[in-house]
Specification:
By secondary structure, this protein is α+β, with helices and mostly antiparallel strands. 37% of the residues lie in helices and 15% in strands. It has 8 helices and 7 strands, in the order H-H-H-H-E-H-H-H-E-E-E-E-E-E-H. The chain has a 7-stranded mixed beta sheet. A hairpin with a 4-residue loop joins strand 5 and strand 6. The longest helix is centred in the N-terminal third of the chain and has 24 residues. The protein starts with a helix and ends with a helix. The N terminus is likely disordered.
């Protein structure tokens, strides 16, 4: 019995040593996989920003904040609507010379109010060129420039001279320069000008139109031909014979009765 009690601790110690050695030799257990408690939802894809809308001249000028009078003229004359439509439909682009509010305030008092509605429309159109001109193209632009006001090239045209970065504009009534490029996207160019561009047409009357050609003269009606009755040749012969016989009778009578 005493031998059994002595042997039991030895066996127990032996088992502990064996179990420790086995644990050291066994490979490490793989880490447990983490399982999300809440299932993930669908992947959210952020949409690309919407493309910018068509170019708006009014929006460009409002963003600058110095063109209130010019904006009112563009809207009241409906020229801004035409410009926006042309930018969509035409590939030639447009060039706009925009006078600031201070440029309008430098006009003589009452000048703008003295213009008729038709003249106001023409004034705004005079600040718009029907094609795109970049800053570098002012160096090679041919004069005179035709504006959207159209009309007489002498009274509704402008000339541009460029020396380096200096661009000068003359209209015959206004002499100013391009102060700054407000907007340029290779289709629309908007330039700030220091003065309102006044056309000569407002101060010099247009030459009178050439007289219309006289109406063609109507030719006199042809006279109706006069009817001439044909002459009967047999009647002429009869008369000639009677005259001959009468003449012969007279000669014979004079011979018998001298």
């Amino acid at each position: 019995m005493n031998q059994l009690l002595i042997a039991f601790p030895v066996v127990f110690l032996f088992l502990i040593i064996c179990s420790t050695f086995s644990a050291a030799q066994s490979p490490a257990a793989a880490p447990a996989l983490s399982v999300p408690l809440v299932p993930s939802g669908p992947t959210v894809v952020t949409a690309a920003p919407a493309p910018a809308g068509p170019t708006s001249l009014i929006s460009i000028l409002k963003k600058d904040g110095r063109f209130g009078v010019f904006i009112k003229l563009l809207q009241s004359t409906k020229v801004s609507d035409n410009i926006d439509s042309q930018l969509i439909d035409s590939s030639n682009g447009l060039t706009v010379f925009a006078p600031t509010d201070s440029a309008f305030s430098n006009l003589k008092t009452g000048t703008l109010n003295s213009f008729t509605d038709e003249q106001k429309t023409e004034l705004v159109q005079f600040h718009v060129l029907p094609n795109y001109i970049s800053p570098s193209q002012f160096q090679t632009t041919s004069n005179p420039l035709r504006t959207q006001a159209g009309g007489s090239p002498e009274l509704l045209a402008m000339n541009i001279t460029a020396v380096g970065n200096m661009v000068n504009i003359t209209t015959g009534e206004t002499n100013t320069s391009v102060a700054n490029t407000i907007y340029d996207d290779n289709q629309l160019a908007v330039y700030e000008v220091g003065k309102v561009l006044l056309p000569r047409r407002f101060y010099e009357p247009l030459p009178p139109p050439p007289p219309s050609p006289p109406p063609p003269k109507k030719s006199a009606p042809k006279a109706s031909p006069v009817y001439v009755a044909p002459v009967d040749s047999s009647t002429d012969k009869c008369l000639s014979k009677k005259a001959f016989h009468a003449m012969a009778c007279v000669v014979l009578f004079l011979a018998v009765f001298p």
